[in-house]
Design goal:
58% helix, 18 helices, 13% strand, N-(1-d-carboxylethyl)-l-norvaline Dehydrogenase, domain 2, Rossmann fold
Length: 350
């Protein structure tokens, strides 16, 4: 359906107009190979399996992710294979390895992408920055994308709750003339709430900006700054964390998700309303230049080049573990761990 957002019209696909039964019928002769069992692989493969599609998983043997796949119920030799075997057996190859993993495995995968097969992505990185990734698919296959707007963990969790995460979809190469219906079928099959149209380039630009911005990078920076100033001014760790993180994640964001920011403001105290309305534009004006710089770095390809170089470093995993450990050991998130354990629902589990 066409939906108008102000003066902009977008194509939106809902479960009502594209039901699961239709998706199953379209893909009934397809073998869907999910390559990679890291971030998105588990959620997408398990949701497809539970929804009645013919799914197999490809993963490097004897890896941590291989063991996770076994624990999740995939059976070696039946629906769990090496990356090479799954690539050979599948008709739709869902390329869900990390961006660095996709670059590394591409020379092998390309040999299995024979005429008439389909190549699926959940991120536009590999093809948008093909000069850097060296991912150049052949012209006789379908290529499309479905990108859930959330983590694979959330995709699975919400699916089990009967809910769904919205996803974008894009067509890169329609060799068969049926690429769109394949994309929408998998989008519905993995449990998308609804699907909205994009392009590979738009998806990766918005995704990289979002991850570095309000979704992860900027929010951690704001958390850290506010917590630090409260502590410097003599507020206790508990008070500082609750006013910085806990109230936001446990109280206010659910209200925003329910009916929007204006409704959340309207359901807070008048003191909170006035302060938020007076201050939000100051934060916008300060951060706008940073977001402008960030978008330029992404769209120019400089950010992609930096990521590829960093992820290709032989010591990357060691350095990553150290960075994440430093974050975990910061006072902010040490306090957070203690406070999460004090939540009634978590105390009841002990």
């Amino acid at each position: 359906m066409k939906i108008k957002f102000g003066s902009v019209e977008e194509t939106i696909i809902t479960r009502e107009e594209f039901p699961l039964s239709k998706a199953r019928e379209i893909l009934k002769k397809e073998t869907i190979s999910v390559l990679g069992y890291g971030v998105q692989g588990p959620g997408q493969s398990l949701n497809l399996k539970n929804n009645g599609f013919q799914v197999i998983v490809g993963q490097r043997k004897n890896s941590i992710s291989w063991e996770k796949a076994l624990k999740d119920g995939w059976i070696e030799g039946k629906d769990l294979f090496s990356l090479e075997e799954a690539s050979e057996k599948g008709t739709i190859l869902m390329y869900l390895l990390s961006d660095a993993g996709q670059i590394s495995f591409w020379p092998i995968l390309s040999r299995y992408l024979t005429k008439g097969k389909s190549l699926y992505f959940s991120h536009g990185f590999g093809l948008t920055f093909c000069e850097k990734t060296k991912i150049y698919p052949s012209k006789d296959i379908d290529i499309f994308l479905v990108a859930p707007k959330g983590s694979g963990t959330s995709l699975r969790r919400l699916f089990l709750q009967g809910k769904g995460i919205n996803s974008s979809y894009a067509i890169y190469q329609d060799y068969s003339g049926k690429c769109l219906e394949k994309a929408l079928s998998i989008g519905i099959g993995i449990g998308s709430g609804y699907l909205f149209e994009t392009s590979f380039k738009s998806e990766v630009y918005s995704d990289l900006v979002g991850e570095r911005g309000t979704l992860m990078g900027a929010i951690q920076g704001i958390f850290s700054a506010q917590y630090q100033i409260l502590r410097e001014k003599g507020h206790s760790p508990s008070e500082s964390f609750n006013e910085t993180v806990e109230e936001l994640t446990q109280s206010l964001m659910p209200l925003v998700a329910e009916k929007g920011m204006d409704w959340m403001y309207d359901n807070c105290s008048t003191t909170a309303q006035r302060g938020a309305l007076d201050w939000w534009k100051k934060f916008r004006d300060v951060t706008y230049p940073i977001f402008k710089e960030l978008y330029h770095e992404v769209s120019s390809g400089d950010e992609a080049e930096r990521i590829i170089k960093a992820n290709s470093d032989i010591d990357y995993r060691i350095k990553l573990k150290k960075e994440l450990q430093d974050l975990k050991e910061s006072e902010l998130w040490k306090v957070g761990s203690i406070i999460r354990d004090l939540r009634p629902e978590n105390k009841d589990k002990k």
